[in-house]
Amino acid sequence: MTRIWILPLSLAVCGSLVAAAQFVKGAIGAGVAFLLLSVLLAGLNSPLAFPRSTGAAEAQRRSAVDGRPIVYWRVGCTYCLRLRLRLGRSARRMHWVDIWRDPAGAAAVREVNDGNETVPTVVVAGRPHVNPDPRWVRAQLPPSP
């Protein structure tokens, strides 16, 4: 649980220290800029930037019922963040599994990636796709109700 917060907290703390140093030097504008940038980066690299994760078994069950793709991801993955940001609101129409929180999700990813935990791995209709183009993923979504 704490592993997923190491990167965002590190970004926030380091940015705060740099901002404090800028404030001490009298560069208020630079300090504020560093502080805002570090908070933004921390937020983007935290689990808060992604839709709520479910377990792999639950995601597979739900996907079988509603036909929505499953995205296996982890915090700190720039490719996962790219996919999430490029999908925009469409991301909520998918099932997200954080492989750092769900050992079964990590095992599912290793199974289809030759033992590697390569994310994002998107499963559409039972077929895994590693780091697919976000436009392709959006095209695989069922129509919204």
What layout of secondary structure does this protein have?
Blueprint: H1 3-25, H2 28-44, H3 56-66, E1 70-73, H4 78-87, E2 95-98, H5 103-112, E3 121-124, E4 127-130, H6 134-140
Parallel strand pairs: 1-2
Antiparallel strand pairs: 1-3, 3-4
Number of domains: 2
The rough form would be described as elongated
Low-confidence stretches: none
Helix content: 40-55%
Question: What's the main sheet like?
Answer: 4 strands, mixed
Supply the number of helical segments: 6
Describe the structure.
Keywords: Membrane, Transmembrane, Transmembrane helix. The chain crosses the membrane at residues 30-50. This is Glutaredoxin domain-containing protein. By secondary structure, the chain is an alpha+beta fold. The protein has two domains: 3-48; 50-140, Glutaredoxin (3-Layer(aba) Sandwich), CATH 3.40.30. The chain has six helices and four strands; from the N terminus they run αααβαβαββα. It has helices spanning 3-25, 28-44, 56-66, 78-87, 103-112, 134-140; strands at residues 70-73, 95-98, 121-124, 127-130. Strands 2-1-3-4 form a four-stranded mixed β-sheet, covered by helices on one side. The longest helix has 23 residues, at 3-25.
